[in-house]
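Example noted here:
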Amino acid sequence: MRATESNQDYPFAVTNTAAALLDGSGTVVAWTRAAETLLERRSADVCGRPARDLLAEPGSWEAVLAQGAGHGDRAGWEGRASLRHGSGRALEIGFRVVPLTDGAHGDAARFLVLGAALELVARWRQDNAFTHELFLQGRVGLAVFDRDLRLLRTNSHLLPYTGVPADLYGRRLADFLWAEDARIIDDRLRDVVHTGIPLVGLNTTVRTLDDPRGGRIVTIQAFRLQEPDGHPMGVAAVFTDVTDHERSRGRLDLLYRATGALGGSLSVLRTVEDLVRVLAPAFGDCAAVDLAETVLTGGEPPADGQLTLPLIRMAVAGAESEALRTGTARFAAPLATTPDGPEGRECKGELITGLGDRAAGSGDDAAPAWATAVPGAHSAMTAPLCARGIRFGRLTLWRTGDAAPPEEDDLALLEEIAARAAVAVDNARRYTKERRTAVGLQRSLLPPATSEKPAVEAAGLYLPADADSGVGGDWFDVIPLSSARVALVVGDVAGHGLHATAMMGRLRSAVRAMADLELEPEELLAHVDDMVVQFASEAESDDPDDADPGIPLPGGPAGATCLYAVYDPVTRTCAMASAGHPPPAVVSPDGTVEYVELSPGPPLGVGGWPFEPVERELPPGSVLALYTDGLIERGEGDIEHGMRDLADRLLRSDVLGRPLRQARHDIMEGLPPGRLRDDVTLLLARTRVVEAPSIATWLLDADPAVVADARHLVLAQLTAWDLDELSFSTELIVSELVTNAIRYAGGPVRLRLIRADTLTCEVSDSSNTQPRMRRARNSEEGGRGLYIVAQLSHRWGSRYTMGGKTVWSEQTLPHA
């Protein structure tokens, strides 16, 4: 017979083993075909010749026989020899001598010699030794299954867990493992038997029927076993217990994910919520974080060690989270402190098992209240949140059902997570305190949210950015001007934080100061731009050596945008200019929304660029919407999409038919505070008009004689308006202002009275010289006119116009 590919690795298989039959004198009696193939020497050439003639060196015959010395005639023996191949070369073989006894006398009359190439014999011996030692070792489990996945052979380490029978021969895995666990393994082993594809690195949990809550994690490697003819005979599997390794890796992974969750936000609430979602159910069936109430508002918890801190349950997660959302908890013992800091044991965790028995106990055996908060929990562990020597909360986990009770390593991991969580929460608390300060400062710098002016009904709304972005520098303002006019301002300082808020306050003050000078919008922005450039140069020239070492130097202002608009209810026009700010939206009384086409100049702080004014007439009842870019740039698309969305919001909120203080909230719907990337500011203004009957205008000649006529005209108009109470003061004001205009300016003089929320008296002339009030000496006859005007007026001032200047005075109406 010829050797086949399927049995070439079996050195003593019948079809692959060279065999010779020798008589007692060492003569070859018979020669197999396998021997012919091995040596390429025919049976006819070998039989009848001494076996020594087959050796490559016939003189080594005695040495070959010496290998069997001491085995006796009845014992077989093994050896090695160098035979002469038919090609003339030497062939090293390994052989086995088997004595054949005579059935009658029991003497060895003949010898059967089995031989194979020495390399093949050595490999067979290695395989045999490997298999033998593999079943003897005790570090991994080894099992051989038949084609029906019944256990045929195992070593002593196969699943040495509680509930595994001592004798496993002929058993299936489902006889002693959980059906689910056994099914997972059987399915994969069956695939190996059918396909022949080895199974590499299957990690699965193995739980026995006697100990279902324990279980171990094993890695399974498996390969198919085949008969010499190639048919599968079963499967061999190696079970490696990797429970400790997997748990260690799982703990490291959990610590990594928990650390990532803690660094995801600067909000106290979101920080602890993200943490418990990571811990439950990965580390425990239920998780909760309790914090001192003062932490939520950024306050410092007491650290004197004399008080027990009332805790509020801030975040829960897990199967029994609803049961954890109610009630409050307290520390069982006060925080003990020493002059050098808190005692180490005060920041250690606590592990409690067997809650099912201890919950029903009393006295010393009773479980603490925090441990029994979850119904059905059999174990719990908690770790305090300590930072800078102050304990201000705790992190607690519960395990229920079939979950394994926690171990000391689990408690150590919880303490590590709690330590990192304490730092994160404390940082969030400190940021919350700073943010509340910044938001408070921001809101204190803004005007009242709603205002009623003769020119407009205004309502503003400010939403700070989320806790991660920080408070920005948005602001809005409604500034009353002379002659019933009003200035509407919206601005946005680049950046976030206290520096941006402080910069916003400086800019708002600057805009208000410039507004008092009655400058045109483009001139006002040019002056404010110069101021921002000056602020930047001052910040760059700060000497770090003169700064407080505990306070970092802020960077210079990165710039700001601003929109300044002036609405005149008499002329019904609105003049505006923009410094890099988005255009305002106008909602007309007919229900259409459009954006004012203006050419925005560069942001404030660039310097050297002019700003272009735009003037537009607004019908009475129009709504002007000024806003910051946070309202149209929210990461939902481009700016044009945001502007279209704002237009839709303005119409849906019915700004034309509802009070603006109500409509502003509907416009902001869907923009919750605390979730914005940038501050959002909105200012709505519904335009009003001063009707013609409330306006009186006269053009006077530059003749001192007309002063008396001006007084009579004004007195008559006041009588028509039923404002005789203001006749005396108004007569003096008009007399002084008209006299000064005729005396120092010449040319025609325009006198105008405006009745709105105040009585405004205007005198306009062609001179660009601003009037200046001074205190006259006792010997002087003149110089007291403006002083008298100032004493009789609620406020007074002057402004430049296209044709000269206008001096105005306002008096409070009697009914006001």
Notes: Residues 39 and 791 are 137 Å apart (CA to CA). Confidence is low (pLDDT under 50) at residues 1-6, 330-345, 547-557, 778-782. The chain is about 30% helix and 30% strand.
